[in-house]
Amino acid sequence: MNNSIKISPSILSADFSKLGNEVISLEKAGADYIHIDVMDGHFVPNLTIGPEVIKKLRPLTNKVFDVHLMISPVDNFIKEFARAGSDIITFHPEATHDTAKTIELIRKENKKVGISLKPNSSIDLIKNYLEQIDLVLIMSVEPGFAGQKFMPQVLEKTKNLKEIINKKNLNVDIEIDGGINFENCAKVKKAGANILVSGSTIFKENNGDLKKNIEILRKN
Ligand code: DX5
Ligand code: ZN
Fold this sequence. Notes:
The chain is α/β, with parallel strands linked by helices. It is built from eight helices and eight strands; from the N terminus they run βαβαβαβαββαβαβαα. It starts with 5 loop residues before the first strand and ends with a helix. The relative contact order is 0.16.
């Protein structure tokens, strides 16, 4: 089962003064995806990076760019993020007036579609779209900052979502994001998550030994 677990390190915890090298190091360390947190200071109270940075990183690696858009309204930027080199584009249903239309915009760019649920957002917001998407990103902290504490109440939501996906026999990944560490990673996998995002744990534990930290998150 562990073979199907993917680790998606969040570059939010990287050293932005050498971002290109950090991405290359993550690839060498065995990352499956590169998680890119895009924040607009409006949907969430923080600002990060835009499409231009993704475009500059794109030639450095073939790894999947797992782009988490925390911007509102999101539709106007889909095309730009797609063409900058995103592979998976994930948005929050609260950031669009028409979830079906946003899914369609991402599909038109031939990108994988993800929808993200904040800790208090219900599965009901996305239940009707599961057939049309590739991934659900469950937030286990309030989106906006790295280094926050994992909210264990999302485990129940993860289990429920996994059940729905299995019942419908769908091929939808469950990704989990926020406060993932060496202790809770087994629990989130057991609940049904198969893609683990991690910033602080991967960049800070064991003196920043990326390879070791990715391996522990994968195997624990
Ligand atoms: C928070 C971001 C996360 C965050 C993860 O809004 O979506 O990807 O960077 O960082 P850690 O693992 O430190 O919680
Ligand atoms: Zn994220």
